[in-house]
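Sync notes, pocket subgroup
Present: LS, DG
LS reminded everyone that the earlier model was apo-only. Rerun requested with pyridoxal-5'-phosphate included. Inputs:
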Amino acid sequence: MAIVYNFSAGPAVMPKEVLEKVQRELLSYKNSGMSVMEISHRSSLFADIQKNAEGNLRKLMNIPDEYDVLFLQGGATLQFTMAPMNLAINKKKVDFVDTGHWAQRAIEEARLVDGIEVTQITSGADSKYTSLPEIDDSLQEDADYVHITLNNTIEGTAFKTVPTFKEVPIIGDMSSNILGQRYNVTDFGMIYAGAQKNIGPAGLTVVIIRHDLVEKSPDLPAMLSYKKLVAKNSTLNTPPVFAIYCAGLVFEWLLAQGGVDEMEKRNRKKSQLLYDYLDSSSVFQSPVAIESRSLTNIPFVTDNAELDKQFIALANDNNLVGLKGHRLVGGMRASLYNAFPIEGVEKLITVMEKFELEHKEVD
Ligand SMILES: *Cc1c(COP(=O)(O)O)cnc(C)c1O
């Protein structure tokens, strides 16, 4: 089988070693004679899987004891609703930092929650979201929390440091760079991430939330209530057992590789290689301001939609797949998540150089 480099933004590439382990264990997990998909979520076999996954995630991200870890369903998108329902309860106000598509989706969903005032305190719209908006803590209103999208998967921007907002907790959507660069969990009231980008298979959402926020949340229907989900350790109903098992294997893999700091180092190296090439190319370019650039999602363009199409076709012929840009922004996008090897970036650049030679404007 030819080596395929998968640049998909999500669901995305997983570590090969993890997939091989899944394959080895698929028919008989720990010699039980049963697949991990067939065992009860109340069995000790599964309880251990979940406990180890949580423990390893805590190790990887230095999650303190006063934070709860939840393994939920509904994707990052359900958190756009659950966060305001559970946490916008005193002032009934939420502030948003608008950094593009996913921030906008979070705003839209929060506006549908009854009795909550939603304010966009700053926006990158003026730059068409190619740079992050200025933030200082004077922006923050009297809100229950401020919502930030740490890595903007579609636009290719990311916060390197987390802004501070006086006493107001920050809720961070970390779907596309969780475990890919170092953030301090204690800078946040809550972090959430859909698993299918930088963790594992779709169907799992990780929520990391400070316990005092959980305690204060109101009485809500069980599946929408952080308090009830925490009380039942995420197994209020049947959890996504297979996705949790795979995520657990990815966490083990990450620890064996050297953890988040090592991943950040590799992700910097991979992305810098591509950015350096883009900044020197006469055919391709990055639309994103240098200081706002993401380590995990790298959009790039030629100045011509027809050329973009030709390049994507050439890339596909060279087993470089998933490079088509998001339908909202066009062009190309290379997603370089933790499991994406540097060899794939090198191959991409080789193919881009070849394309550049053929399409350079001759003057
Ligand atoms: C993909 C993505 C989402 C949506 O995730 P789902 O799990 O599909 O709901 C939300 N936020 C960001 C930053 C994303 O990249």
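DG: The chain has a mean pLDDT of 96.
LS: The radius of gyration is 21 Å.
Action: DG to write up.
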